[in-house]
Amino acid sequence: YPPGYLFLLMLFGIKIFRIITYMAGLLTIVLTWKLANELYDRKTATAASFFIALVPGFLIYPTIDPVALAACCAVGGFYYLHRLTRQNSFLFTVLFSLCSFVFLLFTFVASLWALFGIIFFWFSRENVKWKAFLKQLTIASAILLGLFAALYLISGFNMYECFIGSLHRSKAINTFNVF
Questions:
Q1: Dihedral angle at the C-alpha atoms of 147, 114, 139, 3, nearest 10 degrees?
Q2: Angle at Cα 112 formed by Cα 177 and Cα 167, nearest 5°?
Q3: Buried b (16+ CB within 10 A) or exposed e, 63-72
Q4: d(Cα 59, Cα 130) in Å, to the nearest integer?
Q5: Could you tell me the pTM of the whole model?
Q6: How many CA atoms lie within 13 A of 109 on its CB side?
Q7: What distance in Å separates the CA atoms of residue 36 and residue 40, rounded to the nearest whole number?
Q8: 45-91 pLDDT, tens digit each
Q9: pLDDT tens figures, 30-55
Q10: Cα(69)–Cα(67) distance, integer angstroms
Q11: What would the 3-class secondary structure string for 69-94 be?
């Protein structure tokens, strides 16, 4: 299982983890509204935020389920990636890296993350300053690798081996559920 869930439980306990999950659900709704408002319009943003708010585990019944945290980081990552395509900012680079890092701590769907990123770029390819954007994306990748290296040095946890191990276990029992 991805380690983010266990790290937060060890660090904060169940009560604080529920509060963190609830706050992540609120932040997901806000980031969904901001991203949809920038990409589409207010009506679409309001509808998207409303439907996200109805998902159990976000606002209705926050549990100790890491889905809200992963969703918050996924939406946050795409929001900051979108902002990065529009504005060359080191702050957005760091926030995108942090969202990606935390997202990958809660789910192993990195291939889907990359696929959604490619689709996102395809639809937002106009008005992108590619040279500056690629420079910031390189910095974001270096920050992301640095965070994983720090995680390994501090805790001895190897994210790559954990991911490969989960794939081997899934193949052994004829399932491929890495969520």
A1: -10
A2: 35
A3: eebbbbbbbb
A4: 38
A5: 0.76
A6: 17
A7: 6
A8: 999 999 988 887 777 666 667 778 888 888 998 899 888 888 888 99
A9: 999 999 999 889 999 999 999 988 88
A10: 5
A11: HHHHHHHHHHHHHHHHHHCCCHHHHH
Structure tokens, 127? 């008005």
8 A C-beta contact, residue 4 and residue 37:
no
Residues sharing a CB contact under 8 Å with residue 77, sequence separation 6 or more, in sequence order = 96, 99, 100, 103, 113
Residue with tokens 């420079």: 135
| Among 26, 9, 105, 108, CA closest to 72 | 26
Q: Copy the structure tokens of residue 117.
A: 């990123």
